[in-house]
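Table S2 (continued). Query chain:
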Amino acid sequence: MSRLGDLLMLERTRQKLTRKQVARMCGISESYLKDVEEGRRIIQDDQARRILNKLGTSQRNEAEFSLDEIAATVDLGTLAPQKPAPQSEKKPEPRPEPARPVSAEEQSGIWLDALSSVLRPVPIMNAGWIQVSRKMVPIQDGKIEGAKPERVVYFLAPDDSMRAMRIEKGDLVLIVPQNLPEDGAIMLVEYGAHRCLRRVKLLGNSNILLQSGDRELGAESVHISDIKIVGRAVRVEITL
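Corresponding output:
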């Protein structure tokens, strides 16, 4: 794969691009690109193809030849910028150590670092407020649905008590923080030592109506001091 690293470096230098510019274009770290170009890191064909595509390299031959074959046909010595001949003999540089295989864990970490500015792992919490999993969510302008990413959670619907509002058991409901009731909104509330989803209706005099229902709509009137508003539901993801 070292010839592919040479090919990536050649295309970059021919376009007078820095490693930092290419890394930003391709969503990878600058150190990762440097290791690939210098033959210290193994890169998969599809990753190399994606970087070359970002650089604008023609895809005409990719349907017929592998990237290894394309690299093998390029005379890297003649196409690369020529360096002036050394004025005096230099001691041979020590041979670099052979690149070691990159584990799946390391590759996953590399991509998580590269994507950290556009994706964020959001915890999935059950009714007992225990994290059971997590899900990657896009970030826009440093926020998720207008809220700080670290404060957003998914709530795993524990039953069909909100089926009348099209939320069924096992659905994921994205919750953004909000501690005041909002009329007509579906909100995550803490009531009777349990967290649950309810549609909120404001009644006045600090009383609110908590609506739920499986087949038919039901409601319960409570005083605002008897419950705690955890957040507002902004999106539901169903399981088919």
